[in-house]
Amino acid sequence: MNAPNKSGWKPAMEAAEEGGVRGPVTTTGNRALMLEEPLLFEIGHAETTGVDLPRIGEGKSPRLGGFERSDSIGLVGLTEPETVRHYTRLSRQNYGIDLGFFPLGSCTMKHNPRLNEKLARLPGFADIHPLAPQSSVQGALEVIDELATWLKTLTGMPAVAMSPKAGAHGELCGILAIRAAHTAAGNPREVVLVPESAHGTNPATAAFAGYKVDNIPATPEGRVDVEALKARLGPDVAAVMITNPNTCGLFEKDFRTIADAVHEVGGYVYCDGANFNAIVGRVRPGDLGVDAMHINLHKTFSTPHGGGGPGSGPVVFSEALAPFAPLPYVEKDASGELHIVEEENTDEEHQTFGRMTAFHGQMGMFTRALTYILSHGADGLKQVAEDAVLNANYILRSLEDILHAPFADSGPCMHEALFGDKDFGGGLSTLDLAKGLIDEGYHPMTVYFPLVVHGAMLVEPTETESKASIDQFITAFRSVTERALAGDESLKQAPYYAPRRRLDETAAARKPRLTWEAPEG
Amino acid sequence: MLAKVGASNIDDLFVDVPEVARLDGPIHDLPMHASEMAVERHMKRLAAKNLAAENTPFFLGAGAYRHHVPASVDTVIQRGEFLTAYTPYQPEIAQGTLQMLFEFQTQVARLYGCAVANASLYDGSTACWEAVAMATRVTKRKRAVLSGALHPHYAQVVKTMAQFTGDEIADSAPAIQTEPDLEGLTARIDDQTACVVVQYPDILGRISDLSKVAEAAHAKGALLVVVNTEPVALGAVKSPGEMGADIVVGEGQAIGVGLQFGGPYLGLFAVRDPKHVRQMPGRLCGETTDAEGKRGFVLTLSTREQHIRREKATSNICTNSGLCALAFSVHMTLLGEQGLRELAAENHRLACHAADRLEKVPGVRLLNRAFFNEFTLMLDGKPAREIVRDLADRGILGGVSLGRLYPGVKALEQALLVAVTETTTEDDIETLATELEALVKEPAQ
């Protein structure tokens, strides 16, 4: 334990410490609290284990059919203290919301209340099997039903499919329901219209479902070009997929007009609900003519992002699409008992397009999201949207004098503020500014998305941040922006103070090393 | 703040919302905010209505397994730096997540006997579909042959997705027999087959000789996709890669993640031949160096992914199961090779003991010759689905009936799947045997 980190990398201590006194090169490569950590496979051993299993007795001869695994698997173990230390050290090389401001646009990095974590771990939720007899899991079905009621009421939609595992899975659920509805009507149609500013998942989803994707241009003010969209509508159009509020951070004012026009040609309206946090409790998408919308519980309703997942993406449906919702779903029978519908059952109200996942969806996320929702209530959720929007506008108006804000004149922004890299000096880019922010102690905003703005920077503060926190961020952002405008060369090498300097992504892709292999010799 | 943004009140910031969609106050018919204590009380009341596995003799499996999770796993995954991080798009400040994923990929690849694993997918069933989709890309064929003994929910996910991609899926229900019908399966492989999909151990708990299927598939230019829903088994039985599988996918929930009523779970995905890497779905973490020459990790080969390729992506997947991958990896690190082998041996030993004991119950027959920690019992009398409900009324979660998994299939309704893990006690087994004896004797209604 605590062995010097010998292999694989050579710690170098020549980081730029301009003006400071450089300390001695350490033997270990560590620098006080900044501890390097080798790979598990460099410190573990096949025969080391950190678990203590009870051994009840020797078994008789195995009944594995003669397929006993005799080769070395190649796994290694650590003792419990070594394990805890390994992962604790790794964790300290990560930035998280718990550490500081994380204004990653479109990703909604808000505080994850720990009550959510505590309640999701109650054995009555965490230690129940998805195929347990339904009489033994009525409380779990109530959680699903109660969350479903909230989601339907908050969106003003009559039905919800709870099983999709994440946002993109929810999009797929929505588009598959749309395709099933068209197919039931005799013709699946050919085209899905997607604005240029859409998340990459939108065109990927539509293409997966067998649709041709046509892009719809944006107006100079950053919204869907309604006339261009109307001109493209016809009997071949299955659906439009629109994010609202959109990825430029603006509310699509003409959404209702668009929805009516799409409905007129028999198409459906899919709303990407990734940005629902900007309007939750204030606007019901059902009132805007939406037919299907996924809700990222890990964005709007505070379930943790966990370094890339798990997510959860329930989809609300209009009357027209509700019959096509996927299996399984929870229904209340006449006696008020909840039960899971797992079997295909074809009639007017049930024409399911099938099953998207083995079980009922992300139960662990449902308990967390419901906890957040109950804590906030209808009044608190409305304030969530208002605070998020106020914070974003405050950032927009505090930086627009120094940074190019292409849609600053398009009215108030919603939950995120969008900037571009115009006027940066010395060949500096958005990436350089982002890396400079890392040295200032911030996680950068989303960069180079949406694609409609050159060198896009999408800043989403969420409702979590206080005015003091935002003011401090603005000060830091302004100083790095000034350096970028002035063409400060040193930004090209940033970050200087992170656990790693810039990483060579080109080399990683050219000759991929995706698993550890013992060094030769 | 309002002054700075030029608004007189908060409503001014929502002027772009059309009149028809403006609300005059909080949405009606919904409760207002509640205190931490009140919310806790409400949620605990709901949790108490469920019968937790820890409080009862428990024998459920069929794709989700209950194992002991060491306390330090949950401690590690609750560290805020892991819990509240995002996808590692800024690698300089996400080396913790990235190095963990690199280690996880290595652990999964080795467990599966493969060259490369990805950084996780949603769950085993969606990973199974992604494997079929990948096989159609690699072979440029559109037909997939599913073993009848593939988990029926996995088969349904594949069939659901295939309706939309136009792929042809050939499947069947499992035949109740001691050995899997590999001849019948391989006979269905033809020159148009992209892949054959086999579960290992299968839905009835049986263990197939995958090398025979691999040989037959490869002879026709098809790929072998192997699905594993119980990773602990691979501490005891040969790896799918070793037996010739081209793509190995599975559910990783059994290690570190817990039951959680079906999610979030952990989709595992690996390929035996590194040349297939660029056709894989999902995120991949790779090794590289930083500007000072230090080793570091990044997400790589993202030109396959939707955020770059949009409508030409290999999959629409965006989010993965990062935190579940961490739980899996921490648990696997605690186990190590020796611990995993011991855990697997203990599961198998207890399962053999349970099979022997339950087979002695009059009216109960053990179907399997070979199994790992789950086997199929054929029950006389009432359908197994009713017996499972009766057992639940007596406080015993006695297994998964095939009647629930295959509704309406008469030939399967007497079958009960029983899973036994290291958390099962000999007393639990005795209780199940006693109650089963009473129930199987009851005449069918």
Pairing-aware structural class of the strands and helices of chain A? alpha/beta
The major β-sheet of chain B equals: 7 strands, mixed
Characterize the biggest β-sheet of chain A. Answer: 7 strands, mixed
Radius of gyration computed on alpha carbons of chain A: 26 Å
* Beta fraction of chain B: 5-15%
Mean pLDDT of chain A: 93
**Rg for CA atoms of chain B:** 25 Å
Q: Given the C-alpha coordinates, what overall shape of chain B results?
A: globular
Question: Which range best describes the helical content of chain B: under 10%, 10-25%, 25-40%, 40-55%, 55-70% or over 70%?
Answer: 25-40%
Low-confidence stretches of chain A: 1-19
Order of helices and strands of chain B: HHHHHEHEHEHEHEEEEEHHEEHEHEH
Give the averaged pLDDT of chain B, no decimals: 95
Give the end-to-end Cα distance of chain A, rounded to a whole number of Å.
Answer: 24 Å
Provide the structure class of chain B: alpha/beta
What is the topology?
The complex is a heterodimer of chains A (521) and B (445).
Chain A lengths: L39 H4 L36 H12 L22 H7 L2 H4 L11 H18 L3 E3 L5 H18 L6 E5 L5 H8 L3 E5 L9 H7 L4 E7 L11 H10 L3 E5 L19 E3 L20 E3 L11 E4 L5 E4 L21 H37 L17 E3 L10 H10 L6 E2 L9 E3 L7 H19 L19 H6 L11
Parallel strand pairs in A: 2-3, 2-4, 4-5, 5-6
Antiparallel strand pairs in A: 1-7, 6-7, 8-9, 10-12, 11-12
Chain B lengths: L1 H4 L30 H13 L22 H7 L2 H4 L11 H18 L3 E2 L6 H16 L3 E4 L5 H14 L2 E3 L11 H6 L5 E7 L10 H10 L3 E6 L18 E5 L15 E5 L12 E6 L5 E6 L5 H4 L12 H38 L4 E3 L7 E6 L4 H10 L6 E2 H4 L9 E5 L6 H16 L4
Parallel strand pairs in B: 2-3, 2-4, 4-5, 5-6
Antiparallel strand pairs in B: 1-7, 6-7, 8-9, 10-11, 11-13, 12-13
Helix pairs in contact in B: 3-11, 5-11, 6-7, 11-14
Q: Which structural traits does this protein have?
A:
heterodimer; A: 521 residues; alpha/beta; seven-stranded mixed β-sheet; three-stranded antiparallel β-sheet; 13 helices; disordered N terminus; B: 445 residues; 14 helices; 13 strands; globular
